[in-house]
Automatic annotation (TrEMBL):
This is Ring-cleaving dioxygenase. It comes from the Bacteria. GO terms for molecular function: dioxygenase activity. CDD domains: PcpA_C_like. InterPro entries: Extradiol_RC_dioxygenase, Glyas_Bleomycin-R_OHBP_Dase, Glyas_Fos-R_dOase_dom, VOC_core. Pfam families: Glyoxalase. Keywords: Dioxygenase, Oxidoreductase. Transmembrane segments: none annotated. Residues 5-129, 150-267 form the VOC domain.
């Protein structure tokens, strides 16, 4: 079996307004869904991605205002990579500088990256890629032809990199591209979220909290393939959860030998199942079993808004 690549990546942050300002206001992503953590409905679950809310473009957040600060390390997605159109890296270099986001220029596997962090310390990077459809979403002074397409991939920080590499190839169906310096590279057949790097040397285990990734989700084409994925994972000796209904996709979870929480999520039904495609993310959506508690839940959530940010004066 082979996954097309990343479905979504989910991280812990603290403040919903700060998070939306950074990912929508500065990076120009589209807030495609605001709902709650189904296991802790006093906490938002915010989804941001491209104009169509496509798999391979969605980064999601649990904003816990009283969260401890996490430490990025082994057993986590260490770096989340966003892909932008070829020829637009200069635009993003200037935009990050304009909004006073510190960044470094790095080269990995002959590609140039802008590496930076959000306000909670989540490690991010931007790279140019030919693959992947151009965004249809333009916001905050970012034209479509410069906008983030979706995920370029991720860097996995593993406590057991040889075993993580084996799983990516033998279970998830990635192809090994090669090794350069501190990283091995793997590629799937999808156009977005398809390039995964893994550290060569085991890394010290990180700690969860604000500024860290909780899990990375891989794509399953449909419900039938999803059931096949669960059997496939179990056959390889991994402990997979039952399939869970997450409203906008079905999900199953397992932890790989390097400590990283993996999810496999279905492409359908998608984020337009309970909102019009041109009105995504405009209001709080709750699953049916929480609807009768809407007033109570809303009272515990901190209001926020998607807003165009002014460039700071120098």
């Amino acid at each position: 079996m082979k996954t097309a690549g990343i479905h979504h990546i989910t991280a812990f942050v603290r403040d919903p307004q700060q998070t939306v300002d950074f990912y929508a206001g500065i990076l120009g992503l589209h807030l495609v869904k605001q709902t709650v953590n189904f296991d802790a409905p006093e906490v938002y679950h915010l989804y941001l991605g491209n104009g169509q809310a496509s798999p391979g473009t969605i980064i999601t957040f649990f904003p816990w205002p009283r969260s401890r600060q996490g430490r990025v390390g082994g057993g986590q997605v260490g770096v989340t990579t966003f892909a932008v159109p070829t020829g637009s890296l200069g635009f993003w270099e200037q935009r990050l500088a304009d909004y006073r986001v510190s960044f470094d220029k790095i080269v990995r596997f002959s590609e140039e990256y802008l590496a930076f962090r959000d306000g909670d310390g989540l490690q991010l990077e931007i790279v140019e890629r030919e693959e992947g459809s151009q965004s249809t979403w333009a916001f905050g002074g970012i034209p479509q032809e410069k906008a983030i397409k979706g995920f370029g991939g991720a860097i996995l920080y593993s406590t057991a990199p040889a075993q993580t590499a084996h799983l990516l190839q033998q279970v998830m169906g990635f192809e090994r591209v090669g090794q350069e310096g501190a990283y091995m590279r793997f590629k799937s057949f999808g156009e977005l979220g398809n390039m995964i790097d893994v550290n060569v040397t085991p890394m010290e285990r990180g700690t969860g909290g604000a500024g860290t990734v909780h899990h990375i989700a891989w794509r399953a084409a449909d419900d039938q393939e999803h059931e096949q994925w669960r059997e496939h994972v179990l056959e390889h000796g991994l402990q997979a959860t039952p399939i869970m209904d997450r409203q906008y996709f079905n999900a199953l979870y397992f932890r790989e030998a390097g400590g990283i929480q993996f999810e496999i999520a279905t492409d359908p039904p998608g984020f337009a199942r309970d909102e019009q495609p041109d009105r995504l993310g405009e209001k709080l959506m709750l699953p049916a079993w929480y609807e009768e508690r809407r007033a109570e839940i809303e009272a515990k959530l901190t209001p926020f808004e998607v807003r165009v940010l002014e460039v700071p004066t120098k």
